[in-house]
Amino acid sequence: AGIFKKAKELTILCDAQLSLIMFSSSGKLTDFTSNSDSPKPVFDKYQQLQRCDLWESHYEGMKENLNNQKEINRKLRREIGQRIGEDVDDLTFDELRGLEQNLVDSLKTIRKRKDHLISGQTETTKKKVKNLEDIHNKLLNEYEEKIAVQYALANQGGVSAHELGNGGAHIFAFRLQPNQPNLHNDGGYGLNDLRLA
């Protein structure tokens, strides 16, 4: 805290550009830079005056890492090309056999995955079909129960199935009266021979 206080005082009293970076024993970073949020301008000025490059080793490391990644990328592209049948002219017999074995192993893995997906989809479809069959059977049972109740009501009330089918709730029942002799003798009847029950 005292060092940072002195750094702030130097910046104000001497109008100096100052950058202070400290790492504690636990690895915690604490820094102070005057007149800037970033210490880069101070480092750039230091490099210019000292004629040195603070970032050269870092840049070299990044360049080497980039070259390694490019080489890995080139090898992977070549392997991918070989797996689709390109760039196989330069391969030896043993390399071709190894490539063939890799393709066979890959094919087995792909078939196993495909079979797993198909079996999963089949199980899901079977469950859906079973669920739909259960719903169908339930609806069919409910329909048969309703029909049975309506037929029972029709039979108790003396209503025929034909009447029930034509709106049994609003049916007017007609009955022949036994005190009409002309209906019983010749089997014919007129409009006056029928009445509401």
UniProtKB/TrEMBL annotation:
<dbReference type="GO" id="GO:0046983">
    <property type="term" value="F:protein dimerization activity"/>
</dbReference>
<dbReference type="InterPro" id="IPR036879">
    <property type="entry name" value="TF_MADSbox_sf"/>
</dbReference>
<keyword id="KW-0805">Transcription regulation</keyword>
<keyword id="KW-0539">Nucleus</keyword>
<dbReference type="InterPro" id="IPR050142">
    <property type="entry name" value="MADS-box/MEF2_TF"/>
</dbReference>
<dbReference type="GO" id="GO:0003677">
    <property type="term" value="F:DNA binding"/>
</dbReference>
<dbReference type="GO" id="GO:0005634">
    <property type="term" value="C:nucleus"/>
</dbReference>
<protein>
    <submittedName>
        <fullName>APETALA3-like protein 1</fullName>
    </submittedName>
</protein>
<dbReference type="InterPro" id="IPR002487">
    <property type="entry name" value="TF_Kbox"/>
</dbReference>
<dbReference type="GO" id="GO:0003700">
    <property type="term" value="F:DNA-binding transcription factor activity"/>
</dbReference>
<keyword id="KW-0238">DNA-binding</keyword>
<dbReference type="Pfam" id="PF00319">
    <property type="entry name" value="SRF-TF"/>
</dbReference>
<dbReference type="InterPro" id="IPR002100">
    <property type="entry name" value="TF_MADSbox"/>
</dbReference>
<dbReference type="Pfam" id="PF01486">
    <property type="entry name" value="K-box"/>
</dbReference>
<keyword id="KW-0175">Coiled coil</keyword>
<feature type="domain" description="MADS-box">
    <location>
        <begin position="1"/>
        <end position="36"/>
    </location>
</feature>
<feature type="domain" description="K-box">
    <location>
        <begin position="59"/>
        <end position="149"/>
    </location>
</feature>
<keyword id="KW-0804">Transcription</keyword>
<feature type="coiled-coil region">
    <location>
        <begin position="122"/>
        <end position="149"/>
    </location>
</feature>
